[in-house]
Amino acid sequence: MAGFGAAALLFSLLVIAVRVRWVPLESVDRGLAERLNAVVAPSDLLVQLMGGISRLGSFGVLFWLVAIGTTLLAVRRQWKLAAFLVVAAVGGLVLDPTLKLAIGRLRPVVEQPIAHGGGNSFPSGHSLNSLICYAALLVVFLPVLRERWRRPVLVAVGALVVLVGFSRLALGVHFLSDVVGAWSLGVAWLGLCVTAFELLRYHEGERVTEPLDEGLEPEAADDLRPVEPHDRSGNHAVRIAAGALVAWVFGFGALVALGLPLARHEGGNGNVLWDSTVPQWFAEHRRGWLGEVSLVGSEVGNTHAILAIGLALGAIALAAIRRWRPVVFLLAVMFGELTLFLASAAVVGRARPDVENMDGPMPTSSFPSGHVAATICIWVVAAVLLVPRTTTKWRWLFVAAAVVMPLWVAVARMYRGMHHPTDILGSCLLAGLWVAALVRLIRPNQDLAETAADREREKVGAR
């Protein structure tokens, strides 16, 4: 408690110093900003490195970490911990913009600008939210770690938060006092949340814990573990990896064998399987509202949408099934699809349809369609994992989605002049071969077979 109070006091003093433009503080802030800019700006490597570290404190990364953690807790019915995680993270999102607006400090002005920060400068949002989110996740899931690993993990999380804060200084978008102020505010806010959680435990008759030593809810350790202790999904990893590599090579060969002749025939715009007729027909029948529908269909198959669906599906699978195989299956399918698409597109190099491209020029080949392949993969994976585990009639919605979603994306991409019909065929070939191979190799639903076998043995024993 004393530490949290000291952090709140430090933040208050910094706010006063910033508001009155205390000369010693401004001298240190501006001098450090200039020196760091002189060192970092001339080096492309340092600029890229600092940018990469800074992204670890961005909203996009932190949102998904908190979302995955909250999903796992909710599926495991750890409602108090899920609420703690959400409240802590949302608090940071509220405090950052409101305080920036209230204090109104301008961003640093450096000689060689290398990054841009939106809004005001004090406090640093990346520094504040990275401390809150990473520390909140740590105290929630700390009971899962063995005691000998807890201190190294604490040090690692602390180092990550410090690096994120330093990267904001190095990029010239914050002053030192912005970062220190954000850290002190984050410690104070997290301390308030932890105190409220401990008071709740006390009123419910549970013992008060030491969050940095035991975590918030030590009794929840079994529920917080990602997988069951007896899980053996890592067995035969070498065999699976070797088989997947063979399948990848054969899939790549099939795509190149199909794509190269199409790319070379009449400059990639021959009329094989109506490759020229279909895009031209769509281009001639474009309408305003159809364009909006096609835009949505195209967007639900883009990288960001597929990543979002994959992260949500992976979190639910890990939380509900408590086995590594389904998660490994999901990751392997999506990583393999991405690499197969990029490699085959680079080799084939097919031109886009000879009509107006509604999405503008694209850097990748028309063959195969990455949007369609990724959409097929993610929704088929969802059906493979969820249909056998759902007993209600609603499970067939996943099968319907595995058909309807790729069809919508495929039609949308052709309507917008981005792909030929045979590009879609190539995507179906890519996704079908790859998913089928990994289902066979990884066996993502093996736990269901094991459960059925155990029940059968119990019946035999009862007889």
Automatic annotation (TrEMBL):
Q: Which CDD domains match?
A: PAP2_like_2 (cd03392)
By what name is this protein known?
A: Phosphatidic acid phosphatase type 2/haloperoxidase domain-containing protein
Q: Which residues form the Phosphatidic acid phosphatase type 2/haloperoxidase domain?
A: 79-194, 329-439
- Identify the SMART domains for this entry: acidPPc (SM00014)
The entry's keywords: Membrane, Transmembrane, Transmembrane helix
Matching entries from SUPFAM superfamilies are given as: Acid phosphatase/Vanadium-dependent haloperoxidase
Q: Does the keyword Transmembrane apply?
A: yes
Which Pfam family name is an example for this entry?
PAP2
Transmembrane regions listed in the UniProt entry: 56-75, 82-103, 127-145, 152-176, 182-200, 240-263, 303-321, 328-349, 369-387, 394-412, 424-442
Any keyword Membrane?
Answer: yes
